[in-house]
Specification:
The chain is α/β, with parallel strands linked by helices and about 240 residues long. The chain contains 3 helices and 14 strands. β13 and β14 form a beta hairpin. Bound molecules: zinc ion (ZN). It catalyses: Hydrolyzes the link between N-acetylmuramoyl residues and L-amino acid residues in certain cell-wall glycopeptides.
Length: about 240
């Protein structure tokens, strides 16, 4: 992954006594370029650790060991893990979260590339900081600050998390494969991919009604429409079982 460093003056060095325990997903309400200049200006007094563009660009504005200024305001939070001091005061969530901005606005569709890139970035963060990749630890900004719709109406956080987990299993070689030869027929035009999930690169495309031979399958691929079974071919390509019969 190619990360461009564009360090912002808007951050607090270190994290007091805290460390990253959760990841906050934001939408830029604008372009990556506009966000670059906004975060690089000391006048804005805001930042995030990363910005992800629609074409998969990744810009880093603040180091993960430092505190970015992305989720410091709290209003009617719905996030169950929000921290309070013993006397009931909210602790600034910036100290214990990593913030990722995404290109677009609250009504724009996320590209597959932006999903895949963000998932890869999050997966590495989860590994670095031992953050569980689940819905409690990967949250939308509005779960802290309910006056905002950030990250908008189009992003599917469950899908993002599934991509994070799909890749983690495959990268660590933890998916269990069952070797079993067979043949199936494609129901629709179907993508073959480098791994068992939509996060993986498309390696080939086959039309409907084509017979495909497989060498085996896993039940631990990305869950699509409730189905996580993916076949693999002799060449090491993968395809989703829901697209064949
Ligand atoms: Zn936000």
């Amino acid at each position: 992954m190619n990360i461009t460093s564009l360090l912002s003056p808007n951050f607090t060095q270190g994290r007091r006594t805290y460390r990253p325990e959760a990841i906050v997903i934001h939408i830029m309400d604008g372009t990556l370029k506009g966000t670059d200049s906004w975060f690089l200006s000391p006048l804005s007094q805001v930042s995030a650790h990363y910005g992800v563009g629609k074409s998969g660009e990744v810009h880093q504005y603040v180091e993960e060991i430092d505190t970015a200024w992305h989720a410091g305001r709290i209003h009617d939070p719905t996030w169950p893990l929000i921290k309070k001091t013993s006397d009931g005061q909210y602790i600034n969530p910036n100290y214990y979260t990593i913030g990722i901005e995404h290109e677009g606005n609250e009504m724009s569709e996320w590209t597959d590339t932006m999903y895949a890139t963000s998932a890869e970035l999050i997966r590495k963060m989860c590994q670095r900081w031992s953050i569980p990749a689940d819905r409690l630890h990967i949250i939308g900004h509005h779960e802290i600050y309910s006056l905002k719709n950030c990250p908008g109406f189009k992003v599917d956080l469950d899908k993002l998390i599934a991509l994070v987990n799909g890749s983690t299993q495959a990268v660590n070689g933890q998916i269990s494969k069952t070797e079993k030869f067979g043949k199936v027929t494609t129901l629709t035009r179907l993508n073959l991919r480098a791994g068992p999930g939509k996060v993986y690169k498309i390696t080939n495309m086959v039309n409907a009604g084509i017979q495909l031979a497989y060498d085996g399958f896993t039940m631990q691929g990305e869950t699509v429409n409730g189905n996580g079974k993916w076949y693999y071919t002799e060449e090491g390509n993968w395809f989703w079982s829901g697209g064949v019969k």
